Request: fold
Amino acid sequence: MVGSCAPRSLSRVFDGRGGPPETRLNGGGRVAKRDAGVDAYIAGQAAEAQPTLRRVRSSIRKLLPKAKETISYQIPTYRQDGQYVVYFAGWRQHWSLYPVTEPIRQEVGAALLPYKLSKGTVRFPLGEPVPIKVVERIVRALARAAAARSRDKATKRNPQVDLRRRTRG
Reply:
């Protein structure tokens, strides 16, 4: 029995978060390897959801060809220029894009009205075709926001970066 005096590593094995540290529960409730990639994530989803998730992935990769594709927070993630840009996940009744924050919602506008929104999330029904134009608008807006964060971070590290940008022009 694992008690409060158990070593930290041993208590992680039996803490109810999906089994041993090398495994975890993904969004669809299936077990996947922690280091498994996006292919494994999609393969672990319900058969009906897989074509939709592949289409979403393809759209994101087309828009962010330089982005690094990885798993973060147990879902597919795209990182570019040191910034996380977009996440997506499959669920039983829907698939989602993250983080669709208020500034992103305002930029994308009325195109989001048909979909369920919650804090930082837009949910798309699995039974409908992927709204590629909406996905593209969201990903482009998220990419611009990530690029701005990257520029801000570079400017804070080196104020001359901002000065050089202003003088070229």
Notes: The longest strand covers residues 83-90.
